[in-house]
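Course assignment 3, question 2. Fill in each field.
Student: A.L.
Task: Predict the tertiary structure for the chain below.
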Amino acid sequence: MLNFDDLIQTEARISNYVKNTPIISNQEINHHFKAEIFFKLDNQQETRSFKVRGAFNAVLSFYEKNKKFPSKIVAQSSGNHAQAVALVGKKFNIPVLIYMAKITSSIKVEATRKLGAEVILCEKRSEANLLAKQKEQEGYFFIHPSDNDDVILGQGTCTLEALKQLHSVDAIFAPCGGGGLLAGSYIAKEALCKEAKIFGCEPLIANDASLSVQAKKIIGFEDSPKTIADGARTLIVSQRCFNYLQKIDGIIEIPEVKIIFWQKKLTEILMQDIEATSALSIAGLDIYLQKTNFNNKKYLLIISGGNV
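Answer field:
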C-alpha cells in the first residue's frame, strides 16, 4: 500500500505543474444542508479536471527513475484523463496517442486533439483498453487513468491540499470512476484527518465499484454504462484501487435524475462549470444526510471537473 510520505513527495514533484485550487463555501448550500460544506474546485485546473495531477506525476516519476522522459505515451480515457495526458505531452514535447470510445463527449475529444494528441475512436471502451495495452508492448509509456500508483498519488494531492487548509472535516465525498481519486484521498485523510469518514459517489447505473465492494470481489461491465456522468463510465475497477475501496466508509449510488438536478443547481449557485461527474459528490452528500441526518457537521466535497 502507498503511504503518506509517498503523497508528500508527489505534492512536491508536481507543484510547479498543477494548481493548488481554491476551496469555497456557499451560504445558500450550507443553509440547505444545515452544515458547513466546502468545495475543492479542481474544475479550475488547466484542463479543467483533477486528472492533470496523476498524469504529471506519472511522467515526472518516470523521468526521476530513468533520467529521461518517455519517448511516446499512450492512454485510454473517457475524456478528462485524455486531456491531462495530452497536456503533459505538450509540456514536455512527447508524442501522445489516446484511444477513446465513440460514446465519448465530442467536446472532450476535440479538446484532446487541440492539445496535440492523436485520438483514435473505438466502438467500445473495452476495445480502447485493449489497444492501449497493446501499444505498451510496442514501447509506449502507458498511463492508465487509475490503475497506476503514481496516478493514485497524484490524484490524492487534491484532498491533501484541502485537508492541509481545512485541518479537519467530518466526512469527504468524491466521485468514483476507476477509484484512483478515492484511493489517493484515503491516503491523505488517514494521515491528516483519520477520524473523517470518506465516501465514494457513483452513478446507480454505473455501480461496478459498489457492486464489487458489496460482493467482496471485483465485478465489471461488458460495455460503457450510459450514465450522464461520463467520468464514471469505467468498465471495472482494478485490484489496486479495489484494495482502497474496501477500506473507505461506503459507496453511495446516485440515480441519474439526482445527478442532473445537482449539476444544474450547483452550476447556478456556485457560478462554476460543474460537469455531471462532479455533481456526484453533492448528490452523494444529499442522499447521505437524508439517511443519517448528521447536520451541523463539516463536509469536504471534491469538484473533480468542469468539462461540461
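Instructor remarks: The mean pLDDT is 95. The chain has twelve helices and ten strands.
Grade: pending
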